[in-house]
Amino acid sequence: MRMLGAWLATFLLTxxxxxxxxxxxxxxxxxxxxxxxxxxxxxxxxxxxxxGAFTSIKIIEDFDKTISTYADTTVGDLSTNDYCYFLTAGxxxxxxxxxxxxxxxxxxxxxxxxxxxxxxxxANAKDNDVVTLWHTQxxxxxxxxxxxxxxxxxxxxxxxxxxxxxxxxxxxxxTIAGYTLYVSQTLGAWGSAVSxxxxxxxxxxxxxxxxxxxxxxxxxxxxxxxxxNPYTSAxxxxxxxxxxxIPAVGGNTSGVSNTACHYATPQPTYPMLIDPASVAQSxxxxxxxxxxxxxxxxxxxxxxxxx
Length: 307
Description:
The protein is an all-beta fold and 307 residues long. It folds into two domains: 13-94 and 245-305, Immunoglobulins (Immunoglobulin-like), CATH 2.60.40; 99-243, Jelly Rolls (Sandwich), CATH 2.60.120.260. The chain has one helix and 17 strands. An eight-stranded mixed beta sheet has the order 4-3-6-16-17-1-2-5, with no helix packed on it. A hairpin with a 5-residue loop joins strand 3 (41-49) and strand 4. The longest helix is centred in the C-terminal third of the chain and has 4 residues, at 276-279.
């Protein structure tokens, strides 16, 4: 992990109802980053629904420090639901990569598994053992591409890398060539692919890097095999994310900088699940890369503007 330059990042976040969506805006921040080595900034936007835990809903990659708005179109009925938002920010030097613990990952589905000629369940691709593998059917049937497997990570992560380890037994059958990747917060709502392309034609582990995307569900689609066969196989899939994007935040709160709320009814009394001390840094702590959006002063919450 590399240390970042000095920080001075405070955002006054506001939320405005705009029809069926909530428009978010934050104050100009270009002058608030001091001695950063480049202009590449990331924002991580968290949302708490009806007093629940904050979950990352959008990672915004800003290359020239000009982005200061975002429209949340994924909210429900604004007349009955409460939403609070929390914004953090950081630059590329603060990134600390971690791998999702696969012990808790669940296989939602796989389009094909070979279970007659051997134990080639899709779960073998997440068991931390490169000797075992997932392989699509080949004994009684050989279904054609595309083949896919869907993973439930059991929590939302700001993913930006998936590592594919082909089978390591000296056989190349099923090694993925063409691929398409999807990441989503909601099962089945895949939207656009985060990455697609063709992998190198060998059995070395391969990292597929894409724009940071917050999501719980991952859909990996194999569109071709390196020798043109109809199979797909994998020894392991690993899911990497930037762990420095995960602040210690809980549920709905009030009185914390970088937070804005919409309340369907007069402001409810939710438990204080964010400790303001965990969001603020003293001047002496500016070199620590674990907290973004340092709170300073007495900023008020940007309350919703009903129009």
